[in-house]
Amino acid sequence: MHLVPTKEEVVKLFEQTGALRRGHFEYPNGLHADEYLQVALAMRYYQHAKTLSVGLSRLVRANPELHAMIPQLSIVAPATGGLPVAYGVSEALRAHQVYWAERENPGEPMRFRQFLELTPGEKVLLVDDIMRTGSKLTELKNLVESNGGVVVGIAILVYQPAPGAPDFRPLPFYYLAKLDDIRYRDAASCELCQQGVPLVKIRV
């Protein structure tokens, strides 16, 4: 394993832990795909979580401007998927503290939990496990900025951008592995359905 894991090493780790599965899956929105990635299944294991978090932290630390901010740098992540990554990166960097944002109910905007308050001008690194559409990270960035924080970079384990996903330029943007966008199909046009491949429904 390299100091910063290669894409091939990250994918192999995901496959070995069952985080990356190939088959026939129906997502909660009703669309079908031939693969499913749940990063949390890899983060269950301490050594794998450490490998991924430390590797990502090394990419961040290599940026001289971010490196200089680390003692005062706060990590902000969306609950719940981003939290294991956020705490791992924070430990590896020896960053200042970790915040998280959550939704009280589905469909409601993200918010910080009571008594988690940013100070004006606080430097923030956004961290998450995976980015596809970018909508969650966009909402998180807006939340931080509306509370007086300054987003100085974004770090994620897996970058799997859907068409039209933002790139967040000019912010520094780090990831360990970039994967092809998942090819979704509706049930009527799904070749796997036509072939009779057993279907696994993904729960929210």
Which value, in Å, is the CA radius of gyration?
18 Å
By CATH, the topology is: Rossmann fold
Q: Which CATH class is shown?
A: Alpha Beta
Q: Approximately what portion of the residues adopt beta-strand conformation?
A: 25-35%
Low-confidence stretches: none
Q: How is the main sheet built?
A: 6 strands, mixed
Oligomeric state of the chains in view: single chain
- Bin the helical content: 25-40%
Number of beta-strand segments:
9
Tell me what you see in this structure.
It is a single chain. This protein has 204 residues and is an alpha/beta fold. It has one domain: 3-Layer(aba) Sandwich (Rossmann fold), CATH 3.40.50. It contains 7 helices and 9 strands, in the order αββαααβαβββαββαβ. The strands form 2 sheets. Strands 5-4-3-6-7-8 form a 6-stranded mixed beta sheet, sandwiched between helices. A 3-stranded mixed beta sheet has the order 2-1-9. The protein is globular, with a radius of gyration of 18 Å. The chain starts with 6 loop residues before the first helix and ends with a strand. The mean pLDDT is 94.
Essential attributes:
204 residues; alpha/beta; Rossmann fold; 7 helices; 9 strands; 31% helix; 26% strand; globular
List the helices and strands and how they pair.
Blueprint: H1 7-17, E1 20-26, E2 32-37, H2 40-43, H3 46-61, H4 64-69, E3 74-78, H5 83-93, E4 97-102, E5 111-112, E6 123-131, H6 135-146, E7 150-159, E8 173-178, H7 191-194, E9 200-201
Parallel strand pairs: 1-9, 3-4, 3-6, 6-7, 7-8
Antiparallel strand pairs: 1-2, 4-5
